[in-house]
Automatic annotation (TrEMBL):
InterPro entries: Carb_sulfotrans_8-10, Sulfotransferase. The lineage of its organism: Eukaryota, Metazoa, Chordata, Craniata, Vertebrata. The keyword Metal-binding does not apply. One of its GO terms (cellular component) is Golgi membrane. It is found in: Golgi apparatus membrane. This is Carbohydrate sulfotransferase. Pfam families: Sulfotransfer_2. Belongs to the sulfotransferase 2 family. Keywords: Carbohydrate metabolism, Glycoprotein, Golgi apparatus, Membrane, Signal-anchor, Transferase, Transmembrane, Transmembrane helix.
Length: 315
């Protein structure tokens, strides 16, 4: 692989110690203690590759990607990183980190960046904003990574965040009203107008309804990782997991050469969606609906090595 030109700003302002890129550090680690981790990440990469191959009919429906497919890939030119963000998988904190990494000294502490600021699209550059040759060059020589989570836990997290919080009126109006209109018999006028009391069962029925898929792509908060990040078309060098969020995140920062002064923000979120909560939410879903929902998210389960949840009553 080629070595990138040195950054014109010099290493002192932003960048890496030495001239090794994160890709080189990943595939030819200079430090031995990184090699165990490297083996784990090789296994995760192989799992994605094997799943793509085994399900090629399903996974390669699209033969080529267009720039429009690359809106979720955040680019850091100073450290040669590309991060595909997946909502409900620590993406706010990772966007904060990317703002620190690309800010050239504007920020030092990721947690000083307000959450809503991290989601302002102008604050980060995404891959779709480049020309085709520039896109291909970056896909080839930058280290590409993403973070994944157990698909149904992520789904419950999205549901709780978007449909059970009173402040999310835009989601209630945009999706809630539609879901209630389609899935609830004898809905009250108020429910149809506000859309703010969607039940989890109704949300699931909406997701598996063929009409939904035909009408428009899923919202990014419940879209499959497979459709957001295109792991069968883009070779991710590193798959981080929500279950090992801190270790995996700090490994990325270490490979980028910033691990000595930048760490993933640690926080214990008391409202976090857990496996127990997810089990609870799925109690009321019929086995027929569970089976159909599993089919929708099946590639995410397989690709990222999540086993079929024990609480599922699959048909």
């Amino acid at each position: 692989m080629q070595v990138m030109r040195r950054n014109p700003f010099g290493v002192d302002i932003c960048c890496r110690k030495g001239s090794r890129s994160p890709l080189q550090e990943l595939y030819n680690p200079t430090q031995l203690e990184l090699s165990n981790t490297a083996v784990l990440h090789q296994m995760r990469r192989d799992q994605v590759t094997d799943t793509c191959r085994a399900n090629s009919a399903m996974s390669r429906k699209r033969r080529v990607l267009t720039p429009n497919d690359l809106k979720h890939l955040v680019v850091d030119e100073d450290h040669e990183l590309i991060y595909c963000y997946v909502p409900k998988v620590a993406c706010t904190n990772w966007k904060r980190l990317m703002m620190v990494l690309t800010g050239r000294g504007k920020y030092s502490d990721p947690m000083e960046i307000p959450a809503n600021e991290a989601h302002v699209s102008a604050n980060l550059k995404t891959l779709n904003q480049y020309s085709i040759p520039e896109i291909n060059h970056r896909l080839k020589s930058y280290m590409k990574f993403l973070f994944v989570r157990e698909p149904f836990e992520r789904l419950v997290s999205a549901y709780r965040n978007k449909f059970t919080q009173k402040y999310n009126t835009s989601f209630h109006k945009r999706y809630g009203t539609k879901i209630i209109k389609r899935q609830r018999k004898n809905a009250t006028q108020e429910a149809l107008r506000k859309g703010d009391d969607v039940k989890f069962e109704e949300f699931v029925a909406y997701l598996i309804d063929p009409h939904t898929q035909r009408e428009e792509p899923f919202n990014e908060h419940w879209q499959t990782v497979y459709s957001l990040c295109h792991p069968c078309h883009i070779h991710y060098d590193l798959v981080g997991k929500y279950e090992t969020l801190e270790e995996d995140s700090n490994y990325v920062l270490q490979l980028a050469g910033v691990g000595s002064y930048l760490k993933f923000p640690t926080y214990a979120k008391s409202t976090r969606t857990t496996d127990e909560m997810t089990t609870e939410f799925f109690q009321n879903i019929s086995s027929e609906h569970q089976t159909q929902l599993y089919e929708v998210y099946k590639l995410d389960f397989l690709m990222f090595n999540y086993s079929v949840p024990s609480y599922l009553k699959l048909e």
